[in-house]
């Protein structure tokens, strides 16, 4: 596993690993134990996981005396404060804030354009990367010495923050700025699954040829973007990654802050690689409720399922959900044991297959023209075959077989960029 890649000037900073416990000889007094020696193993407790942002001692020297631009959102936290607020208190000169989808403070709904603004709390200019442009301009970066990227990802291709990372890297490369990445754990880091994105279906929810669940942290993905020559014009961005301490990909990690308005529970985050596929179907997947991505259904499934819910307009989450104010019938996955996903290490396709089979409106199931709230299944899955495979009644095993050899090739390529076991 390469920690340093010759094509990019990348610095990786981490805490040292814990040593193995050493036995300690000790005299023990007590009933029946006089003058006897016992071997007592003095155990070290496991070291606590620390995000890159929390290890300020490792990167404050890199920011000292510099004009800093920060790509952040509500997940950018150090303890109970945003990293912006924390670093300001530590004397860092933050020149500008750059916000992705949903904005810096997370007040905008999914897919809603965010305008440039001034952050009311700090008075710092906030540039939107989900508005007039998705890439920082030369003018945006003119008074910036170093950029910082500190955003929590959830490990899937159609979650747009990794696209923001790519655009920021391209801008930094073009304008000769260093990008400091404060890495964070991937809550779905154990999962590498799905078809490789076909370039024909490249979109705002998928740019690069990676599977649905990519199994990388943001820092690792940045190395992949550089190493595979995926940045525009094959430029290389000068990056420095502050690694998570005491982290591995199989580790269970509960996010301290919801990563976006509709991923508002840990259950939703863990189901998201599977249930986000319902965005490409004529089903409501919990938008317009407090349980997005954990429930799914439609009015036309009445009599097929007992569970029901009614989507309503919720400001900041979903103002016009599919089947608004209509009773929907379907699946309740709020108590589904997500350990089953971890055991299988696979995206769950059975839920979508069963709902298609139960639907009396099969001709409408993937028809994205029926509602602006629907996405296109090909863009979500990344494959032009999936729709027809479901219609033809292909088994989950047959569908998965069609993802090869691309998925296995990706898994091999991925190993070059890993920073963690």
Automatic annotation (TrEMBL):
Sequence ranges assigned to domain Peptidoglycan beta-N-acetylmuramidase NamZ C-terminal in this UniProt record: 270-420
Transmembrane segments: none
Pfam families linked: NamZ_C (PF20732), NamZ_N (PF07075)
Domain Peptidoglycan beta-N-acetylmuramidase NamZ N-terminal: start-end pairs: 68-266
GO molecular function: peptidoglycan beta-N-acetylmuramidase activity
Family annotation (InterPro entries): NamZ, NamZ_C, NamZ_N
Protein name as catalogued: Uncharacterized conserved protein YbbC, DUF1343 family
């Amino acid at each position: 596993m390469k920690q340093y890649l010759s094509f990019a000037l990348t610095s990786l900073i981490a805490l040292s690993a814990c040593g193995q416990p050493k036995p300690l000889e000790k005299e023990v007094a007590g009933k029946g134990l006089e003058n006897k020696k016992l071997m007592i193993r003095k155990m070290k407790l496991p070291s606590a996981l620390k995000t890159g942002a929390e290890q300020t001692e490792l990167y404050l020297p890199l920011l000292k005396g510099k004009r800093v631009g920060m790509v952040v959102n509500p997940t950018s936290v150090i303890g109970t404060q945003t990293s912006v607020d924390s670093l300001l208190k530590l004397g860092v000169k933050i020149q500008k804030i750059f916000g992705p989808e949903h904005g810096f403070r997370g007040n905008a709904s999914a897919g809603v354009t965010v305008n440039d603004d001034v952050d009311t709390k700090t008075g710092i200019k906030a540039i939107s990367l989900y508005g007039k442009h998705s890439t920082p301009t030369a003018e945006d970066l003119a008074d910036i010495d170093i950029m910082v990227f500190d955003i929590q990802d959830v490990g899937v291709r159609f979650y747009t923050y990794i696209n923001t990372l790519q655009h920021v890297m391209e801008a930094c490369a073009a304008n000769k700025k260093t990008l400091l990445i404060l890495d964070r754990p991937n809550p779905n880091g154990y999962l590498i699954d799905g078809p490789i994105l076909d370039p024909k279906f490249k979109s705002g929810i998928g740019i690069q040829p990676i599977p649905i669940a990519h199994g990388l942290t943001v820092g690792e993905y940045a190395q992949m973007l550089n190493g595979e020559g995926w940045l525009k014009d094959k430029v290389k961005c000068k990056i420095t990654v502050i690694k998570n301490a005491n982290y591995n990909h199989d580790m269970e990690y509960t996010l301290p802050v919801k990563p976006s308005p509709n991923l508002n529970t840990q259950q939703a985050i863990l189901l998201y690689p599977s249930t986000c596929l319902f965005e490409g179907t004529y089903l409501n997947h919990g938008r317009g409720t407090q349980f997005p991505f954990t429930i799914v259904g439609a009015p036309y499934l009445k009599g097929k399922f007992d569970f029901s819910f009614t989507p309503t307009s919720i400001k900041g989450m979903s103002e016009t959900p599919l089947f608004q104010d209509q009773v929907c019938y379907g699946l309740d996955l709020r108590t589904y044991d997500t350990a089953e996903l971890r055991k299988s290490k696979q995206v769950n396709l059975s839920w979508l297959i069963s709902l298609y089979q139960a639907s009396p409106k099969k001709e409408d199931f993937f028809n994205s023209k029926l509602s602006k709230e629907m996405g296109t299944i090909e863009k979500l899955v990344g494959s032009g075959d999936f729709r027809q495979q479901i219609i033809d009644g292909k088994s989950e095993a047959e569908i998965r077989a069609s993802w090869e050899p691309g998925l296995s090739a990706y898994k091999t390529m991925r190993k070059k960029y890993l920073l963690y076991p």
